[in-house]
Design a protein that fits this description.
About 35% of the residues lie in helices and about 15% in strands. By secondary structure, it is of the alpha+beta class.
Length: about 300
């Protein structure tokens, strides 16, 4: 596959990235939060990122985002749970954290994201847009969310569309034959629901879907935020400029673990930095054993580690 004339124009635009910025601005929209378990934490988060990678990185220390979920569950080969706790507890950025936004793969992903969103909208019946804000889960406020893309079914149901560029090095983590859509072939079958297995590990389930485990957990947290039954991973393979989309089912077992293990991680963060304590989180295992997080008349959140275990 070769880039289209429009895509080449976007890729070879001037140093200010005006064409890409215009496309990204066109794709940015508000998310209707009615009935969703999330609320706005930081409005217009992309404007923060445009001004400063460091400010954006500091904001991410306010909770555990979707990209942190794999480290929380111990399935991220590049970041351990211990390192994540230390990272979230620090008030300042390390030199390594400051340089993340300048890495080639990160810049490539950021610059090509509007093009991949455009491709997803083109090949499917729905419009893919990028929510403007950063969100926090209302009942589990140690979890946050920043979406690459979101689409909406005709009945109003939102579902996440995670956007990635697959580098030559990263291709080994994918099985492209398992994609639901291949730009060169067209639409293929939706995979069977591997997510409903309580026995299989995250790594096994991700392998069955043909994607890396760290994107499997990220999509699960995004599905939680949108109360969605499935999510999509749309990727552009850099080596041949070929677009693929993977279909992933909701996994209640992994979602439960993201909540409970995320709580444990945030407890460790607060031990190292008490300023990271989120007001309203309280647990009393003796008196609160219900199927969902409880909210008091004061609007404070009540949570116990055993509430969400399926």
């Amino acid at each position: 596959m070769e880039p289209t004339e429009l895509e080449m124009q976007l890729i070879t635009t001037d140093q200010d990235g005006e064409s890409r910025a215009a496309l990204a601005k066109e794709q940015a929209k508000d998310l209707d939060l009615e009935g969703l378990p999330i609320e706005v934490l930081v409005a217009d988060i992309d404007s923060v990122l445009e001004k400063s990678n460091e400010d954006f990185a500091l904001i991410r220390k306010q909770g555990l985002g979707g990209s942190d979920s794999s480290a929380v569950l111990g399935v991220n080969p590049y970041n351990s749970r211990t390192s994540l706790i230390q990272e979230k507890s620090r008030d300042k950025l390390t030199q390594e954290e400051k340089e993340v936004g300048d890495k080639v793969a990160v810049r490539k992903g950021r610059d090509l994201e509007p093009i991949i969103i455009q491709k997803a909208s083109k090949f499917f019946k729905y419009e893919v847009f990028k929510p403007k804000d950063m969100y926090r889960f209302k009942d589990t406020p140690w979890l946050t969310m920043n979406f690459d893309g979101v689409a909406q079914e005709e009945d109003g149901q939102y579902f996440p569309v995670e956007i990635k560029v697959v580098t030559l090095y990263g291709q080994k983590h994918y099985d492209f034959n398992k994609a639901m859509f291949d730009e060169a072939v067209g639409m293929k079958n939706i995979p069977i629901n591997y997510a409903m297995s309580e026995i299989n590990s995250v790594e096994t389930k991700a392998l069955q879907y043909g994607i890396p485990p760290y994107y499997y957990t990220q999509l699960q947290q995004e599905m939680m935020a949108l109360d969605a039954p499935y999510g999509l991973l749309s990727v552009l393979r850099d080596s041949d400029w070929r677009f693929f989309t993977f279909y992933i089912h909701k996994d209640p077992y992994v979602q439960s673990r993201i909540i409970t293990e995320g709580y444990k991680v945030w407890e460790e963060v607060v031990k190292l930095n008490p300023d990271r304590k989120i007001e309203g989180i309280w647990c009393n295992n003796q008196s609160h054993r219900k199927n969902k997080a409880l909210e008091s008349n004061l609007g404070l959140f009540y949570f116990c580690l055993d509430i969400f275990i399926v």
